[in-house]
Design brief:
The chain is α+β, with helices and mostly antiparallel strands and 389 residues long. Among the domains are: 62-79 and 244-271 and 304-389, conserved putative lor/sdh protein from methanococcus maripaludis s2 fold (Beta Barrel); 92-202. It is built from 4 helices and 23 strands. It holds the Pfam family RND-MFP_C.
Amino acid sequence: MNYETQVTADSAVVIDDEDARARKRRLLLVAAVVIVALVGGAVWISTRGGGAAAPAVTAQVPVVTVNSPGQSTVARTVTATGSLAARIDMPVGVVGEGGMVTRVLVQPGDWVRAGQVLAVIERSVQAQQVNSLAAQVDVARADAKLAQAQLDRAKALVGRGFISAADIDQRTATRDAAMARVNVAVAQLAEQRARTGRLDIRAPANGLVLTRAVEPGQIVGSGSGVLFRMAKDGEMELLAQVAEGDLATLRPGNSAIVTPVGGNDQFAGRVWQVSPVVDPQTRQGIARIALPYQPAIRPGGFASVTITSGSGNAPLLPESAVQSDPKGNYVYVVNAKNEVERRNVTVGQVSEAGVAVTSGITGNEKIVTSAGAFLTPGQKVKPERLKAS
């Protein structure tokens, strides 16, 4: 009896342990299900919440500054480049017989007067010829004086019958021949003096010496070429290469501002000649711009020029309003629906005041003055008027 009782008690203990373990497994399973449900619910709520919020986001309409500039009076200008030169370039060479140069009296950059000696040619032989001819003049004059005296004495004796009328005629002819020889001798002397004077190289007019190509001891003659170059009265000019289209707008008298390369100095000038022909290769013509003498203006140098060819009315925009792409220049205009439209324009003069637009707009439109590079045609915008500064 006692043995059975003990077995029964042990079996009851084993059964109780198994039940406890089963309950524990069920609790863990329920907890896992609850956690999974909570996580799934959170994910579902977050997904639903994000989808509901998306429609609430609305696109931002950009704010742009616009202006209606109207019409302004702007100068029509033409820009070009070219080379500087003497307005009247005078080459100076040997006029007379030539010879050996003994002295050079001027240097490039010197101002000279008309007739001033630039270089002296050796003249010892010519000087002796002048002296010889001068002596011949003296001889001829002495002969003429003697012939005149003889004629006077003969005329005094003709009344007494000692001299015939034929003798008087002969003596008169002798006197006239002597006077003629005097004139011939004087003319020969003057000719030789002129030849001797022409040996020296002289300035043909008032002006500025530009170059010198002769040195003392050099033998020069009629085939020696140019020994000096001068600018008459020191006047210079710019030979501006102007495009064919711009050339038609220029007239003699148009004002110009010339800036030589290598400096910031600007010089005022005027167009004095517009070429009547156009180079068929470059499609350019020459506008000649007269300039007063300035040390910074050097013939042969390069310079740029801005020529004022007149004035006209055109819209004046800030540079930020004008955009460009491979199709050309354009601006954006805001229409009545507050949408931007592209307008192709032609740009004229660009100055500190702004960019003159010669065609494409009237100036009464609402023109986008900034941020045009970030817009696209048809885009909605909120325009704001440019505030007056």
